[in-house]
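Appendix B, example 12.
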Amino acid sequence: MNISVVIPLYNEDESLPPLIEWIHKVMMENQFTYEVVFVDDGSRDKSWSVIEALAQDYPAVRGIRFQRNYGKSAALQKGFEAVTGEVIITMDADLQDSPDEIPELYRLIIEEGYDLVSGWKKKRFDPISKTIPSKFFNYITRVVSGIKLNDFNCGLKSYRKDVVKAIEVYGEMHRYVPLLAKWAGFDKIGEKEVEHRARQYGKSKFGLNRFINGFLDLISIVVVQKYLKKPMHFFGAWGMVFTLIGAADLLYLAAVKILDGELGNRLPAIAFGSVMFISGILLFSTGLLAELIGRNSPYKNQYTIKERLENGETFAEKIPG
């Protein structure tokens, strides 16, 4: 199969029929073999019913339905696990991403040898309350990651199949897929300017909480990836710093006591030195425990799926417990 299209969605029932019609038209014109994997992230509207109906008219349509809303990262991860195509395209369901970009995104992977190509919505139709935080977020991510992309969070991307099978997307990490790919060893990452269209149906899911969570996740992913296999390097280093500062403070006070016979009004200095020394020992101990335990949880990518759609038929998924 040439292409797998993964489309995470939440309450987008009106957008889905014109979207699949558009995708099918592009695929037929370019003679691509393809599948479209819709991942319904716990929608409360008729999205799943629409997907079931579309599967009757378009055999390429597959579906995964979550029991509740888990977020875009969870939807992408389950979509990545399900795909079988040589090249994977991700796009949003709101018709703001143009399927006409698919052939060139596919070509860049197959002919130019890119591992990942990220879309860049240079001209956007989003409100300023979304574009300004996005520009700031992208700038910070470029500085921290060293990856020269203008738009990390663009939903329209193409991937070599090996990439999506090698990475894990969880929490709010969908913003950092290029960074995850780079750390997994796929460092040929490109960018293509893509068309951005105004939203026709529904409303944006963007909110201030997603902006804040994005930066918290950036800190998390950088620290975790850098020290994943060597947590002692992080906790141990800070533990040594704290311990040395505390020890130096306490040794100075001990010298004062020996030479002068009294410490005078140095209680705050004693408290500071003691806290720093004990904190250093605790950090060092945490590093040792982290080395022993490890940080990988076998449950971080488990999500409750309610139903699956395969070959036009819906199957109920057994819910654990």
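Residues 231-260 form the longest helix (30 residues). Strands lie at 3-9, 34-40, 61-66, 87-90, 116-120, 157-160, 189-193, 305-310, 313-316.
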